[in-house]
């Protein structure tokens, strides 16, 4: 049995990682839908990919950019995502084709 003290010291809150945390992404990964609630209790939907058992959120802007790249290069197999900004309001994503 673990004490509350030990558990609290080792605790890390659950959080979905971001696709930009990955070094590279394979375009064949399955995109999955998720739902969550914000701090006000409002439900929102988002998309994730699962890599090695970890969920990574995929922003809609990344999907839109990837669509444009795939229209020009349908044989693309891998890409990476650069993230600039820290808050929801100022974050921008750049999709970078890798092959």
Give your account of this protein's structure.
- This protein has 99 residues and is an alpha+beta fold.
- The protein has one domain (13-97).
- The protein is 20% helix and 37% strand.
- It is built from two helices and seven strands, in the order αβββββαββ.
- It has helices spanning 4-10, 60-72; strands at residues 17-18, 25-26, 32-37, 43-51, 54-58, 78-84, 92-97.
- The strands form two sheets. A four-stranded mixed β-sheet has the order 1-5-4-3. A three-stranded antiparallel β-sheet has the order 2-6-7, with helices on one face.
- The longest helix has 13 residues, at 60-72.
- It is elongated and about 55 Å long.
- It starts with a helix and ends with a strand.
- The mean pLDDT is 92.
Write the layout of secondary structure elements.
Layout: H1 4-10, E1 17-18, E2 25-26, E3 32-37, E4 43-51, E5 54-58, H2 60-72, E6 78-84, E7 92-97
Q: Which strand-content bin applies to the residues?
A: 35-45%
Our Rg estimate from Cα atoms comes to 17 Å
Shape: elongated
Q: What is the N-to-C succession of helices and strands? A: HEEEEEHEE
Query: How can the largest sheet be summarized?
Result: 4 strands, mixed
Estimate nothing, just give the exact number of structural domains. 1
On the 0 to 100 scale, the average pLDDT is 92
Q: Widest sheet: strand order?
A: 1-5-4-3
What oligomeric arrangement do these chains adopt? single chain
Q: Measure the end-to-end span.
A: 50 Å
How many DSSP-defined strands? 7
Query: Percentage of helical residues?
Result: 10-25%
